[in-house]
Amino acid sequence: MPSSVSSSSSSAAVTNQYADLNSDPTAIPFLRGIDVNRLPAADCDEEPGVSSPNSTVSSISGKRSERDQPATTGSGGEDLDADEEDGDTSRKKLRLSKDQSAVLEDSFKEHSTLNPVSTQLLFQKQKTALAKQLGLRPRQVEVWFQNRRARTKLKQTEVDCEFLKRCCENLTEENRRLQKEVQELRALKLSPQFYMQMTPPTTLTMCPSCERVAVPPSSTSSPPVVAATRVGSSPLPMMGTAAAHHHRSMAAINPWAVGGPFNVLRPRS
DNA sequence: AAGTAAAGATCCATTACATCA
DNA sequence: AATGATGTAATGGATCTTTAC
């Protein structure tokens, strides 16, 4: 989707995205059955529109309506200029029918933009075709796509926000746990007589991947499980199995291991 | 080739209206 | 019937790209 902050490169991406459409206009669903070559080109916005048989219609005021002429009486028989002729300058809105919205929605699913500049002429025709099909003004189709893109963006922003909120909560929880762990380790360090009473493990095993000392899960004959020394688990989804393998908490490791307490925490030289 | 103005397009923020509870 | 909330059509201004000169 081209944006106001788009660089020429992103524009080029859009160009590529739609490049094949130049050779095959019928690749776009809503154009199937419509001969785009028989439609007016870029200045088609100026053609008299067609009133919607399904919509409540009214006049449009403002600058844009000067460029985009209000639709006049069409096959539906409604006169869209009626209010303007009455001198009513207040803008009124038409509500698109369900059918109109559904068609626009389908088109949006195919392409969220109507009018990449590189294929301007073609997409002008598509916008016009869609407008004609729905009995709307091209400008209305344009506005609908614009608002639809805005809604999509807003929805995505909400999803992103929710995700970040959860991440924040998880990190807060992890932080709380780690703080607690640090406190416990400090307490241990300050009272060596406490862990002097602990029974050292009978066998020590080196983790093959990180080469740190691990402790067997029990005194049984089963082989030592390195990851089993981990206290707690990360709530973060990104803390996958690889990360979980590493024993971030050494609380369960015998402090005598490898020449004294806690030196397993030090980075290896 | 580089610069520039005009035209026409999009995006964004906002307004105004329609509908519903 | 009146009213506030919500959804969305429409507007206006800023900005970008293309094109012609």
Task: Tell me how many strands there are.
Answer: 2
Number of helices: 8
What name goes with the CATH superfamily of the largest domain?
Answer: Homeodomain-like
Task: Kindly state the percentage of residues in helix.
Answer: 40-55%
How is the quaternary structure best described? single chain
Cα-based radius of gyration, to the nearest Å: 34 Å
Order of helices and strands: HHHHHHHEEH
End-to-end gap: 51 Å
Descriptive account of the structure:
There is one protein chain. The protein has 8 helices and 2 strands. By secondary structure, the protein is mostly helical. The two termini are 51 Å apart. It folds into 2 domains: 8-156, Orthogonal Bundle (Arc Repressor Mutant, subunit A); 191-265, no CATH class. Strand 1 (205-206) and strand 2 form a beta hairpin. Helices cover 41% and strands 1% of the residues. The structure holds a DNA duplex (21 and 21 nucleotides).
SSE inventory with pairings:
Blueprint: H1 8-19, H2 64-67, H3 82-85, H4 98-110, H5 120-134, H6 138-190, H7 192-196, E1 205-206, E2 213-214, H8 241-245
Antiparallel strand pairs: 1-2
Helix pairs in contact: 5-6
The structure holds a DNA duplex (21 and 21 nucleotides).
Protein name: Homeobox domain-containing protein
InterPro entries: HD, HD-ZIP_Homeobox_LZ_Class_II, HD-ZIP_N, Homeobox_CS, Homeodomain-like_sf, HTH_motif, Leu_zip_homeo
Family: Belongs to the HD-ZIP homeobox family. Class II subfamily.
TL;DR of this structure?
The chain is mainly α and 269 residues long. The protein has helices at residues 8-19, 64-67, 82-85, 98-110, 120-134, 138-190, 192-196, 241-245; strands spanning 205-206, 213-214.
